[in-house]
Amino acid sequence: MKNAIILHGQPGKEEYYDLDSPSMSNAHWIPWLQAQLLKKDIAAATPEVPFAHEPDWDLWKQEVERFDIKPDTIIVGHSRGGEFWMRYLSENKDIKVGKVVLVAPSLGWYYSKDVYFGNFKMDPELAARTEGITIFSSDDDNERIQKSVDEIKDTVKGVKCREFHLKHFTYGSMGTDKFPELLEECIS
After folding, report:
1. CA-to-CA separations, 112 to 39, 108, 137, in angstroms, rounded
2. Given this model, what pLDDT does residue 84 score?
3. Looking at residue 116, what is its pLDDT?
4. CA 127 from chain center: how many Å?
5. pLDDT-based confidence at 112, cuts 50/70/90?
6. I want to staple 136 with a disulfide (CB 3.0 to 4.6 A). Which of 76, 90, 103, 147 is the partner?
7. CATH number for the domain running over 3-187
8. Residue 101 and residue 75: Cα distance in Å, rounded?
9. In the predicted model, is pLDDT for residue 20 greater than 90?
10. How many CA atoms, within 13 angstroms, populate the side-chain half-sphere of residue 115?
11. CA 14 from centre of chain
12. What is the mean pLDDT of the chain?
């Protein structure tokens, strides 16, 4: 059975601990996308990384590796989740996956001296081990995200980019939890 892994981003500490906010795997468009994929007979997992506001590579890796990663697995990563997938797939050259869709991917070195997931080297040949990598970027997202998108496009051969005007692809900037363009990209 085909499957998907949808990985959330890094919330701020206040959002993470806000009792009135959903957990990150239940925020923005993630539950909608999961439901749509399930209705298309694609087992969709949305790992919930504990302490996501303080990214820890080993913890994120442990949570993701609870799920099957196969040659037809659809990979989706939002923001810091996109950075996770870039490092994970760059370092695990024996893993082949299906489509990879990075939504507003961020690279930690544009944010912090601590470099969240380490100063890893992106594999320029990564797309060849997938059914294609697509980045969803927004021309009005913050400058660090735009630099991250440019660096991924400049480094990894064969990356496709779809441009939007939706800031950071959150419920607040989109005004909806539905994301049909992302669903279409995942299943086309």
Report:
1. 39, 6, 21
2. 97
3. 76
4. 15
5. low
6. 103
7. 3.40.50.1820
8. 6
9. yes
10. 6
11. 21
12. 95
DSSP code per residue over the chain: --EEEEE-----HHHHH-TTSPPGGGSTTHHHHHHHHHTTT-EEE----TTTTS--HHHHHHHHTTS---TT-EEEEETHHHHHHHHHHHH-TT---S-EEEES---GGGT-TT-TT-SPPP-TTGGGGSS-EEEEEETTS-HHHHHHHHHHHHHSTT-EEEEES-TTSSHHHHSSS--HHHHHHHH-
Residue 120 to residue 88: CA distance in whole angstroms:
10
Residues 6+ apart with CB under 8 A from 79: 8, 9, 10, 103, 104, 105, 106, 145, 168
| pLDDT of the residue at 186 | 98
Q: If 0-12 CB within 10 Å is exposed, 13-18 middle and 19+ buried, where does residue 86 land?
A: buried
Q: What backbone phi and psi angles, to 5 degrees, belong to 4?
A: -140, 150
Pairing type for strands 133-138 and 74-78 reads unpaired
pTM: 0.95
Burial 161-188 (b: 16+ CB within 10 A, else e): eeebebbbbbeebbeeeebeebbebbee
In one letter, which amino acid is 150? D
Reply yes or no on whether the pLDDT at 111 is more than 80.
Answer: no
